[in-house]
Amino acid sequence: MKQVFNIVLIVICMTAVSCDRGPELRRYTEVIEVPPTDMANMPNPHGNMFTRVDPSQRTDDPNLQRMLDASVADVDLLWERPAEWDEQKGSGMRLATFNSRGADPIQCTIVSLSGSSGGVAANVTRWIRQLGAQPPSAEALTAFLARQEAIGSQGDLAVQLIDLTEFASAESSMYAAIIETTDKTIFIKMTGTAKSVSANIKPFQELCRSLKIRP
Fold first, then answer.
1. 8 A C-beta contact, residue 209 and residue 79
2. In percent, how much of the chain has pLDDT > 90?
3. Can you give the pTM of this predicted structure?
4. CA angle 66, 67, 73 (to 5 degrees)
5. Domain CATH for 115
């Protein structure tokens, strides 16, 4: 009888202690993986250094992207900065970055890649998608490219201008140029709002006409 009484007493004490403890606090840490805004430290096959991939050059096509990632090329390119623009020192894939002044600036970049880097049609299709537009059919794209203007530069470079403003929205527009050499492709790309891009086409073309490769 005494043993039973002791067991009942122990149970009562354990219940009282549990009731006094109150609700138990549980702490946890939630780890959220945030995808990077750019693909940093991609290996450069042209040397032992690492190259930061320009996010503006990225594409959803894995084959074309591998080609872009593997084809960063050095080129001793010279140019004259348009008077209306400011210039930032190049880094990573970019040889240079320019910005117009004012409340609604454009950004213009010069990028050099080795080889054809996918070709003109593939890169134009990629840029159209970046603008959020539906790329035209192969036939329509061929006709679009045939309408584009070609100009020469001071360094006797053939500059193919690509006017993408017809695929633009008010918030996102683009005007670009492609220079194909024997072993490199140079991309000059201007982005901004439709209004700012249209207002800066003349300085963009002036930049393209000033281009030359140091002998």
1. no
2. 55
3. 0.67
4. 120
5. 2.60.120.1690
